[in-house]
Fold this sequence. Notes:
By secondary structure, this protein is α/β, with parallel strands linked by helices. It has a single domain (7-337), classed as TIM Barrel (Alpha-Beta Barrel). It contains 15 helices and nine strands. The strands form two sheets. The protein has a seven-stranded parallel sheet. The chain has a two-stranded antiparallel sheet with strand order 2-3. Helix 8 packs across helix 10 (171-195) and helix 10 packs parallel to helix 11 (212-230). The radius of gyration is 19 Å and the shape is globular.
Amino acid sequence: MGMNGSPFIKACRGTNDGRIPIWIMRQAGRYLPEYRAVREKVSFEQLCKSPSLIAEVVRQPVQRFDLDAAILFSDILTIMDPMGVPVSFPEGGPVLANPVNGPDDVAKLKPYDPALELTFVFDGISEIRKVLPASPIIGFAGSPFTLACYLIQGKGSSNFDKPKQFLHKYPAASETLFNFLVDIVSRYLEEQIKAGADTVQLFDSWGGILSQDDYRHWSARPVQEIFRRLKRYNVPRILFVNNVAPYLDIVADIDCEVIGVDYRCDIARAAAALPHKAVQGNLDPAVLFGSKESIVRQTGSILDSLSTHDNFIFNLGHGIQPGTPVESVYTLVETVHGFQRSTA
């Protein structure tokens, strides 16, 4: 692991004395013409299953913008197919063929070994390492709650009422489901680490819809168990919670190195509430549609608001949007990399 000296890995561990690292959620994506060129030739599913194309789309933004980390290109629902839940990606978002409607459906889910069924992901990580030998690689998965949202809803949703009801209607089946998901996700991330991931991130994209008690039980608890199982690999563990503000006191107690902060939450407030963790975030992706001056100003205000930068990773507070001007991304990265810390 030659990555421990990189600003990104050092920031994850709270010891970064170099430039402020930056990577961008969905940095391999439709805002980039070279990504669109790849997608013209293959479907999203084909891209996710081709190790050489995974490495190509991961390489593009890292080299173009001089980003400080490469994140695996995949989808959080990639782990569904082998459990007997085929997923397709029509234009409107993912659709799951056999959603979980009740306890019987939970019992039908097939346990499997990710090392055997998802080899294209791990081969993809090996390929990324070849094309980006000096970049830290971030592996990732969806959090059990976020995966359960899609499994139960059967597709995307703005409020995921069905999964929330399911937890209360079928508490025993929900426990079974979450134990199953914890196990698969833990093994999946372990294999990513073995393939060469230098750090792993859980996307708790929908945890933010839960009450405090439900968040503690159905999101934080399974996440804590996954991170406990990964601790022995000694790679930084990152948790991104979309809408983290209501749960800062809960995530403060999770055994991980980094909390990703969404754009709704003040980053300095988050950092103060998480004294023993690195923080990652959190510029609103919409800012990148503004003027150059506005991007510089709002990026600077996030950087200036933090009293210490040794444990800070700059990112957007959600995924970059498809129509984002490429020039704006250059401006963002140059502003972050050019930031002079006060030596006082």
